[in-house]
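Trying the structure run again after the queue cleared.
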Amino acid sequence: MNDRESQIARGITQQLDRGLDTIEPFALARLRSARETAVAALERRPVLALAPAGGPNARHTVLHYFNPRYILTLAALLLAIIGTVYWQSLPTDDATDIDAKLLSGDLPIDAYLDKGLDPWLKRTSQ
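Done. Tokens:
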């Protein structure tokens, strides 16, 4: 708060304090009771809010990174990477790969010796 705001707050507080003299004691007791009830209800009510991330003086220790959220996130990331590498390493028996190897002459000799290759070639050439 800057100086101007604190002066305004002091002036408002003084005006309110002067007004207390003109209130009847019965009304003042009711106001005090209502305020205490409101403060008690406010203290019991749970507050749902975002926690601040911390300022420049926030401490980050090694134990901070062993939070279960960080560990679970790291485990999910590692599983995703391992799954992707495994999936990419699986052999493909795609027909286009076989055709490309056949046309380029990269098929092994066993493919030419296969008894099903000649009927397949005759069927696809028609």
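The mean pLDDT is 76. Worth checking whether this holds up in the mutant runs.
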